[in-house]
Write a structure and sequence with these properties.
Order of helices and strands: HEEHEEEEEHEHHHHHHHHH
Number of domains: 2
Distance between the termini: 33 Å
Strand content: 15-25%
CATH superfamily of the largest domain: Jelly Rolls
Structural class: alpha+beta
Number of strands: 8
CATH architecture of the largest domain: Sandwich
Radius of gyration: 20 Å
Number of helices: 12
């Protein structure tokens, strides 16, 4: 059952009409795909890969996830049910509910067995991960803890948004998705530092309750001219502290997040065949041309072409 705190974000979570998935690229030896038929696979450099997988059968789940990979893996359950299985030869009752995040070290095998689920798998080579945390930790650190299961508001929200865009038939290589994956990686690095390495940072963040209020305000006012003053007032913070806390919590700036939500709503309205000018007004763009520039920048095609599909 999905967490009710995500009820306002049905675009992120609700099933979309079936679409033909993009053809996955050739397998990469540095970050092997964990499923025979992934919805999509996206590489960022030599050490980072995102894979959107369905697990329609337990035998595939068991075959692909038994044994260690040599990679740091972050398994984000964006559609799941509670499951039993085994990992590293030990039986587990796995909390694979919607929003569950599992962090696995390179020498750990991911769990085998379970029920059908959907997972966004983020794989990082040790070199990539340690290069990303080198400027965040004040002293050299080593992996201290094993498998960690948790949930995180922003990681779940961003990953579900990524899934929803793919479900709309987009290939996932557009700037819109790159921004989402960059934000997901940023949040995973922060969680890894705290939960695996035990490095206690003191970043300014918003509590889940405050974050939910801010996101609901954004969602309710996407058609308006949102200002930083408005958002910081909802959060009860100064503009300076709010900007830092928002980025630490969501992995992107308030402006970038608002734009991503506007574009997400644009996609939804275009599917309903609304005129582009009307969509621009409903989603907070100044005019048809403003929407066209932003849409083409993020998706590589004008909204009129998407509307004609």
């Amino acid at each position: 059952m999905k967490d009710p705190m995500f009820a306002p974000y049905d675009f992120f979570i609700a099933p979309a009409p079936a679409a033909q998935p993009a053809s996955p690229p050739a397998p990469d030896a540095t970050a092997p795909a964990p499923d025979d038929t992934p919805r999509g696979s996206w590489k960022h450099g030599d050490g980072l890969q995102f894979i959107d997988c369905d697990r329609p059968a337990i035998d595939l789940y068991a075959k692909d996830f038994e044994g260690s990979t040599g990679l740091h893996q972050f398994l984000i359950q964006t559609g799941a049910t509670p499951a039993r299985g085994s990992g590293n030869g030990t039986p587990h009752r796995l909390p694979n509910a919607f929003g569950c995040l599992q962090m696995l070290l390179p020498d750990e095998g991911a769990p085998a067995g379970g029920t059908p689920t959907r997972t966004l798998v983020v794989s990082m080579t040790p070199q990539h991960l340690h290069s990303r945390i080198s400027d965040l930790a004040t002293a050299p650190v080593e992996d201290r803890r094993g498998r960690t299961c948790m949930s995180n508001f922003s990681v779940t929200l961003l990953s579900a948004a990524h899934d929803a865009g793919i479900d709309r038939g987009l290939p996932g290589h557009e700037l819109y998705f790159e921004d989402l994956r960059l934000a997901i990686e940023s949040r995973l690095i922060t969680l890894y530092l705290r939960c695996i390495l035990g490095v206690e940072q003191a970043p300014e963040t918003m509590s889940p309750t405050i974050a939910r209020h801010v996101l609901e305000f954004i969602e309710d006012n996407l058609g308006s001219n949102l200002h930083l003053d408005d958002l910081s007032e909802v959060a009860g913070l100064s503009k300076f502290h709010f900007s830092r806390a928002f980025r630490q919590t969501l992995g992107m700036s308030p402006h970038a997040f608002v734009m991503s939500r506007r574009l997400a709503r644009v996609l939804d309205l275009l599917r309903n065949r609304l005129p582009v000018g009307r969509v621009a007004a409903l989603c907070g763009f100044s005019d048809h041309a403003h929407l066209t520039r932003q849409f083409k920048r993020s998706f590589g095609t004008p909204p009129s072409a998407f509307n004609a599909r």
